[in-house]
Specification:
nine-stranded mixed beta sheet; 40% helix; 18% strand; 282 residues; alpha/beta
């Protein structure tokens, strides 16, 4: 599924796409990724749902020269939902998309039918050692020779997968950051990362009054399962499930398990429970 439509908002050109018919499902990607992480899942669900993908400002096919902090992205997401004229869509978020979707509903008052949070950045602390290094040296890294930048980027993104990414998958994920515009944008989005938004989100997670499911790859090397469990504990009525043999890029590591969880969650007769589950046990 492609993101070949454009939403112009406050000087930002946001790429998005839509397919299918039925109840609305909106996917939010994280960093340093794009809507491509969700495209196969959107395609599969489009027979029964109207699916929406979007690239956040600064990512993928969207313009890359804008502010990309959590607050700006949440406002952009709320505006996009209004532009689509959606009435309480299901929202599925990964990584940075978790904090963005949470802030959009908690602070910007966007209304959702349900929220699935998949290996998300949502509560502090966050940020890998590499992430913290880049925050300290953003402009220096802008000037790296392109081949060194590419080598760093490929190593960084590869570490998000537990099973290992296929060459074509890795190529697709790093491609937006390899252009003359993309290289500084990659380091800029890390430099603008502000954990204060996560602190603010955490304080008001108890205000969520929608069905929420937290899904975590048991082998996530970027964000430990303890963070996922703590997030679920902070959200009233949230359920939690771990997926074995899956890292941070669970979309690539465990596609069958994740697709099954998505289908079950979006089913109108699903049973929402606060019980912790583990997909490795019957």
């Amino acid at each position: 599924m492609d993101v070949d439509e454009r939403f112009e908002w406050k000087g930002r050109s946001i790429a998005w796409g839509k397919a299918g018919s039925g109840p609305a499902v909106v996917f939010c990607h994280g960093t340093p990724f794009s809507s491509r992480v969700w495209s196969r899942y959107a395609d599969a669900l489009s027979a029964d749902f109207t699916v929406y993908l979007w690239d956040m400002p600064g990512y993928g096919e969207s313009a890359k020269h804008h502010e990309v902090d959590f607050g700006s992205q949440a406002k952009a997401f709320a505006a996009l939902l209004e532009h689509w004229e959606l009435d309480r869509p299901h929202v599925v978020a990964h990584d940075f998309g978790g904090a963005v979707s949470l802030r959009a509903t908690l602070a910007e008052k966007a209304a959702y039918r349900s929220l699935m949070l998949v290996d998300v950045v949502a509560v502090p602390p966050s940020g890998s050692p590499f992430f913290q290094f880049v925050k300290r040296h953003p402009t220096t890294l802008d000037e790296l020779p392109a081949y060194i930048h590419e080598a760093i980027l490929r190593a960084y993104v590869s570490a998000a997968s537990h099973r290992g990414l296929r060459e074509a998958e890795l190529d697709e994920l790093v491609k937006p950051w390899l252009t003359a515009e993309g290289q500084p944008a990659f380091y800029r989005q890390i430099a603008q990362y502000d954990e204060q938004y996560l602190v603010e989100n955490e304080r008001i997670l108890g205000n969520l009054a929608i069905p929420v499911k937290v899904v975590w790859g048991r082998d996530d090397a970027w964000i430990p399962t303890a963070t996922g469990k703590r997030l679920a504990d902070l959200i009233p009525g949230a359920s939690y499930v771990e997926v074995p043999e899956a890292g941070h890029l669970i979309q690539y590591d465990a596609p069958v398990a994740l697709a099954t969880l998505l289908r079950d969650w979006l089913s109108p007769d699903r049973c929402i429970s606060g019980d912790r589950k583990d997909l490795s046990t019957p």
